[in-house]
Amino acid sequence: TAAEEIGLDGARDLLRRHDDWLRDKPTLLINLDSVGAGGTIYLAGEPGTLAWAEHTAANLGLATSRLRILGAAMDHQPFASQGLCALTILGDVVGQSMAMHSRRDTLAIVDRTALYRAATLAAHLAWHWVERYQPPRSGFTTPLNKHESVTASTSA
Q1: Whether 34 contacts 91, CB under 8 Å
Q2: pLDDT reading at 143 higher than 70
């Protein structure tokens, strides 16, 4: 959303512009921040969402730590403060703090393994959220080619 360092302006604006839509639909906000940094996945967020993310990470064999830094603003906060499920997944912002927002903050310091771990966690959370809140479908048709189709039904 941009501008987290100067008052969460981007996150607050997104929430303001889409508040009705966000409340109307089961919404999970996953904020990815510095996820290519170092060997630790840090998590911060709304308590219920945070516990769920920790459980999911543990099931994936991914070690996590909670991050709380007094005065640090994260883009999930405006959403969580409004009762929405919101989470920030961070890379090792503690171990890499001296490089971030400096001349050394370039693509050369991105750790592909760290990026993969964070992406795996975010993807699993998003997928499980969709599975949990997908509306039931009574039937649908999937065209195989122009001469045949398959009709399937699902039960919720």
Answers
A1: yes
A2: no
What's this model's pTM, rounded to 2 decimal places?
Answer: 0.74
Residue type, 62: L
Rg (CA), the chain: 19
What CA–CA distance (Å, rounded) separates 80 from 11? 11
pLDDT confidence tier of residue 144, bands split at 50, 70 and 90: very low
What is the pLDDT confidence band of residue 107, given thresholds at 50, 70 and 90? confident
Q: What are phi and psi of 154, to 5 degrees?
A: -125, 155
Rounded CA-CA distance 42/89 in Å is 6
Q: What is the DSSP string of 34-103?
A: STTSSS-EEEEE-HHHHHHHHHHHHHTT--EEE---TT---TTHHHHHTT-EEEEEE--TTTTTTTTTST
Contact indicator for 22, 86 with CB cutoff of 8 Å: no
Q: What is the pLDDT of residues 66-77, one digit of tens each?
A: 987 755 678 788
Sign of CA dihedral 71, 74, 78, 82: negative
Long-range contacts of range 5-8, CB-CB < 8 Å, 24 or more positions apart?
Answer: 5/73, 7/73, 8/73, 8/75, 8/77, 8/78
